[in-house]
Specification:
With about 425 residues, the chain is α+β, with helices and mostly antiparallel strands. The chain contains seven helices and 17 strands.
Length: about 425
């Protein structure tokens, strides 16, 4: 007869999942897809969090939430359940019996670290060995994913699926929404999770921008001897990436082998579609680049937000001014930072409000990385992620953000050129 160790913090589902409901592979901890069993386990944990008055009071007092997570496992008796964990140190605020203990990762300034990680293959490594001497790895064991995986391995539990979610009020710097799922961070967890998952059949992440199927893209909507305007589809890179060379730029270079200069004047995110301006020669490129610098080029984006915006006193438009910088803990995500961020300004206008969505125009005054996505989703912006935003909202078929209007002065003729590309949504 199989006996379960009551000391192990396993929670079980009300109904044992069928074999057909189990994941075929362990999903990548850095991906956005969450397995249905991990969603079910998360909802079960969230009910516990909702009923914990101490935790509610803690969040209200500190005006900020926290990251929690679950790891669906199979125990030594073959029964499917899940482990729970939180990020950081909340041990004095919540009932710790529900959660797995932390990994001891506090280190001295001299870099002496006795904390050792191990995987199911029996391999062992000091946490310090995963990081460069110039990078602080203090607090690595306080992250959700390493806690869950190391505890599962220690207790001979088979990892099946992982999920991390934010619970409580959003922080002031990064974008986190109550109840939304997020992947593991890349700086602290990125180096060690592949080691912890050695011996586990982990699903590989698709390389962004790889194998874009439409060989005819991008469509040209304006062209003369000096310049052209094309429509970039969602899923095609603007310029070559680290691992993927296929892009709007490389395709234009192949189409126009005699063109001189850098061609593209600006970029769009991989997931964003819409108008891109390109110059066929260096002189035209330089003149158009000056217009971007002087902000005389007009751009308008259309987006669908994931909630119905409230209208206060009939206000249908406004301006968002939130400085941005890269999140060094979790690239390529961006943060709002008043100390070191670059000025980022966006004007917005409500076009139409649905039952649970809002269609808006965005007019970027500046052009920072992920500016429109952050300004839409941040709590001091519109507090409404763009539909399909895998970084700052919820994943969907595509990001509903499209650069639909472009207006510039033609360097050769001096005439104002206006181009419109209707959004495909």
């Amino acid at each position: 007869m199989c006996r379960r160790d009551s000391k192990i913090n396993i929670q079980y589902f009300a109904q044992e999942p069928a074999v057909s409901e189990l994941p075929e592979q362990f999903g990548s901890p850095f991906g956005n897809d969450v397995h249905p069993l991990a969603v079910l386990a998360s909802h079960q944990l969230q009910k516990i969090l909702d009923s914990n008055s101490d935790l509610t009071q803690y969040f209200d007092k500190n005006k900020c939430g926290n990251m929690f997570g679950v790891l669906v496992i199979k125990d030594m008796c073959g029964r499917v359940g899940f482990l729970s964990a939180f990020s950081g140190d909340l041990s004095n605020e919540i009932e710790t019996a529900v959660f797995v203990p932390p990994i001891a990762t506090y280190v001295e300034c001299a870099g002496v670290d006795g904390s050792i990680l191990f995987n199911i293959l029996g391999e062992e490594k000091k946490i310090s060995s995963f990081f460069q001497a110039t990078i602080s790895f203090k607090g690595v064991g306080e992250c959700v994913a390493p806690k869950l995986l190391q505890y599962a391995i220690k207790n001979n539990l088979v990892p099946l699926a992982l999920a991390e979610f934010w619970w409580g009020e959003s922080p002031a710097d990064e974008v986190r929404h109550h109840g939304y799922f997020y992947p593991a961070c890349r700086r602290k967890c990125g180096p060690i999770l592949p080691f912890l998952l050695k011996g586990v059949d982990v699903q590989l992440l698709d390389t962004l921008g790889e194998n874009f199927e439409d060989n005819t893209a991008p469509e040209t909507v304006y062209e003369d001897n000096h310049l052209l305007v094309v429509v970039k589809p969602a899923g095609l890179l603007s310029v070559p990436g680290k691992n993927v060379k296929d892009s709007v730029l490389t395709r234009l270079q192949a189409r126009y082998p005699d063109a001189t200069g850098p061609l593209l004047l600006h970029r769009l995110d991989l997931s964003t579609s819409g108008l891109l301006l390109a110059a066929k020669n260096a002189k035209t490129h330089k003149a158009l680049q000056r217009q971007f610098i002087d902000r005389t080029i007009q751009k308008r984006y259309v987006a669908i937000l994931s909630k119905r915006l409230s209208i206060s006193s009939g206000v249908m438009e406004g301006t968002i001014d939130l400085p941005l910088r890269v999140d060094i803990e979790d690239r390529p995500r961006q943060l709002v930072c008043y100390s070191h961020g670059k000025v980022a300004v966006t004007r917005w206008e409500i076009i139409e409000r649905g039952v649970d969505t809002t269609r808006v125009y965005f007019y970027p005054v500046t052009g920072r990385t992920h500016q429109l996505r952050i300004h839409a989703s941040h709590k001091y912006g519109l507090n409404a992620p763009i539909v399909g935003d895998p970084l700052y909202g919820k994943i969907a078929d595509r990001l509903l953000l499209h650069a639909e209007f472009l207006c510039f002065t033609h360097p050769a003729t001096g005439k104002r050129i206006e181009i419109v590309s209707p959004p495909p949504f």
